[in-house]
């Protein structure tokens, strides 16, 4: 009898051949083609990987309309998005594991990679997707195979590599319009060229340019409350001007050695973040804010008294929180925010905002990556990955997204990362193994704060205008040794054991206080203003840590047949502790220096699943169940106008199911669903609250998600016509850890459709598409500012979008 490993080797070339045949046949170009992944650091059929993995090829992502890195979340069960700055910076949430601290000093609990190079800054997870071969999304703790450990999971984008055999390339042009009062246009050009430079050298160049008009129409100075915050105020929002490029070189000096080098650069210019305002009101009991609700239409109070039921039956009263409304006796209009503003069309795309400027923000990133792969023998190989990245950004939002000149929030970063991974992999008849060393350095400086611009009601003369800023510097050095062994106990049963040992060193320096503000396009310049908020300011903090940490994995997977795999195991993940860099109000409100440091989080994951191939390979059915037991979960508690990360225990129960099938020739169907019930325990309403802590739901964690897709292709006009439709459903979810009623986005269903035609040679493809057909208002990000402005700021996914695309491949 052949061993399971030998059977896998038989199936793998067959799967690759099937994938190539599908990709080369225009009549059968399927969204459901087999995907070969490297989730376990070796090439495997997706169905042979005993891990919850969702993977898509570049062609599939293009057909799904993936433009930005986070777009793939809509088609991946259990994966959502979080972040800040109205979607200009977005990160992944996997199975409810996320951390939406808006300071770039942090690392996310879900790691993102490009060509095995770790993206160290959480908000740098937002990038344009172009010339990509595939994406792999792994769920659950990662630490025994990939360079950087992560508790929630990882997303790995793999770019297309240079071709040695022939010159190839493509040009892809898409143009379209958003269905908004602005009739905003978007034009995107993507192109790549690849080919040999000699017998042993090949190169590939790719670029992407995107020009998007603002889709959020600004009616400012309509209902302006104060003089404008500066020249150019009141711009339309939601634009994007991005250019990105990647150059890759591949060297094959011998049959056993390959060296891949790549350089990438991306630059984006954007307006102020496209938040909108909705009127909210705080519910007070005994001097404590216990809930926030949408403001009733006739309500004129700043805050309202509760009667012990959390605000469901609010009663008359005169309790209010100090500072709310900046001394106003009540709301200046019934049902509006403190200053009388109510969004003119609710969640549609018209608003009135003063602190809104064209080309105010930018993000810029660059990177170098080197990968050396050397086959030491027929069964052993060595891989070295060297990666360097630089991130710069400065982005702004208006805290009330309204015409009252109050405060703006800004987020800036200047960071570099360097990582070096050395990895050995090997196999024999009954085992496969990986062993490696990993070093990571992150040198991060962030500038965050609140800007009181010219003419601001919060300026605080004689210092106005000012930046109430925090400057934080964090250097991280992480050293790891890791390994994983798969051992065949029998021809059908395999045991897996993995271990990672690491030391995490952090050196932290923070200062916060008040700077003079010179304009609306720069922050934290000059020297602190002494005693601007009384004796003691500015405030300073320094600390350093050096912690030993470990992760581990034990698992069994059983192949009762060539078409069925069942697996179960336990996995320990860890994310190092770190330091907060809070805004001034959050610093003072959370106890000052005592709230700066927080501990590592530890996740014990228990998971079982199956992967089945049915109907002669035409159907794949995969499922998993899991239980997460968290110790010291790193949760972001946002109170007032700022927040800090705190440690709290948590637990999650969940299940996922994925079905892909081609029941008849030309028809592809996909369905996936994910459900989980997550609880974060003993969260206080605020630091020092006399009320007992509560169990809450994590942020940006919809309990139920589901996606369905259908694609039918047929011969027409000498080529292939294809009609495709997909819908994705998300349950409601909170965007504030306190789980107040108003701090929640409703459930939504997004629907997309497209019609494409491909020429007989597959050289030409034209596409007509409509994204968000029903013009659904799907929530992206939000902040609770009910006690500052009587409002929450919220952002939504882009409105209905019509486009036409033309692609030429050669």
From TrEMBL:
Keyword Kinase annotated: no
Membrane topology summary: Multi-pass membrane protein
Pfam families membership: Plug, TonB_dep_Rec_b-barrel
Occurrences of domain TonB-dependent receptor plug (ranges): 46-153
Leader sequence residues: 1-28
GO cellular component: cell outer membrane
Primary localisation category: membrane
PANTHER family registered for this protein in UniProt: FERRICHROME IRON RECEPTOR-RELATED, TONB-DEPENDENT OUTER MEMBRANE RECEPTOR
Family: Belongs to the TonB-dependent receptor family.
Descriptive protein name: TonB-dependent receptor
Record organism: Parahaliea mediterranea
Lineage: Bacteria, Pseudomonadati, Pseudomonadota, Gammaproteobacteria, Cellvibrionales
